[in-house]
Amino acid sequence: MTITTTPPMRVAVIGGSGLAGSAVVRSLVRRGHEAVSVSRGSGVDVTTGDGLAAALDGVDTVIDVGNTAAEKPAAMIDFFVTSAANILAAEHEAGVRQHVLLSIIGVDRTRDYPHFTGKLAQETTVAGGGIPYTILRATEFFEFAESAVQWGTKGDFSDVPPLLMQPIAVDDVAEALVDAATAEPTNAIAEIAGPERHDLVDLARRIQAMRGGPALRLVPSWDQSGFGEEMAGNLLLPRDGAALAATTFDDWLRSSARSS
Ligand SMILES: NC(=O)c1ccc[n+]([C@@H]2O[C@H](COP(=O)([O-])OP(=O)(O)OC[C@H]3O[C@@H](n4cnc5c(N)ncnc54)[C@H](OP(=O)(O)O)[C@@H]3O)[C@@H](O)[C@H]2O)c1
């Protein structure tokens, strides 16, 4: 655990009720900072800007880990661009010092995946938004393997894309985001990945075995909508020089088994 060496800060976490956001809020609080969790559940809509001014009042830094459930590509892309523009406008009004954005490794390597297209456009909006920023691109969270099984389920089997990946614990991403939020802005993009390479189908099988119960047949396949062969190869892997987090998939699996 990193102990805070900076004075306590007031940090707004966009998407603070989500998977990454709740880990960021926990990390901030543990490190002695004040976390303002921002989501529709807390009365703020980043797509319209409603409630943002009040949420950012007195905030030093914003960490944006918002996400959309939109399925249509245009709506997905629009969410990331519009929300970034609204958040940046509110930051100018509130005198926010730094904008920290969570993005994804590989967003600059394909134009075939709308979530990545949206995240890349969001990065561009942040970089040109006039607020000092730090962008952290992370690999997929370990939980991604379970989501992929759900997305590919068709009756008693699931199509799971055999993605080569280097997934990471969401708590490690949260720590890195809080490190960035409490340091000087870099106005640059950094990368963070988990410590080991894996195959997504293998991860999904190991999670199923840990959960027990009736197992779905997992079929390695590029047929799952959203993940075609364009995602094969090294597309999701970190570049040389990326930070590598400590938590392994086995560590995460053991702690998930204890808490389930
Ligand atoms: N999952 C991964 O493997 C992974 C890896 C690397 C990077 N990322 C990035 O990490 C970010 C967070 O992902 P996640 O999986 O943690 O997301 P998530 O669990 O789906 O959480 C999304 C958050 O955004 C909020 N939100 C959605 N629409 C909103 C709106 N209109 N106004 C205000 N808040 C809104 C949600 O709360 P309400 O619904 O209450 O509004 C929730 O707090 C995403 O940008 C994603 O691209 C994800």
Describe, in plain words, how this protein is organized in 3D:
The protein has 260 residues and is an alpha/beta fold. The protein has one domain (10-259): 3-Layer(aba) Sandwich (Rossmann fold). It has eight helices and twelve strands. It has helices spanning 19-30, 52-55, 73-94, 114-127, 144-152, 170-181, 200-211, 249-259, and strands at residues 10-14, 34-38, 61-64, 98-104, 133-138, 153-154, 157-160, 164-165, 189-193, 198-199, 217-220, 243-244. A hairpin with a 2-residue loop joins strand 6 and strand 7. The protein is globular. The two termini are 23 Å apart. The mean pLDDT is 95. NADP nicotinamide-adenine-dinucleotide phosphate (NAP) is lined by residues 15-21, 39-41, 44-47, 65-68, 102, 104, 119, 138, 140-141, 144. NADP nicotinamide-adenine-dinucleotide phosphate is lined by residues 15-21, 39-41, 44-47, 65-68, 102, 104, 119, 138, 140-141, 144.
Write the layout of secondary structure elements.
Elements: E1 10-14, H1 19-30, E2 34-38, H2 52-55, E3 61-64, H3 73-94, E4 98-104, H4 114-127, E5 133-138, H5 144-152, E6 153-154, E7 157-160, E8 164-165, H6 170-181, E9 189-193, E10 198-199, H7 200-211, E11 217-220, E12 243-244, H8 249-259
The protein binds NADP nicotinamide-adenine-dinucleotide phosphate (NAP).
NADP nicotinamide-adenine-dinucleotide phosphate is lined by residues 15-21, 39-41, 44-47, 65-68, 102, 104, 119, 138, 140-141, 144.
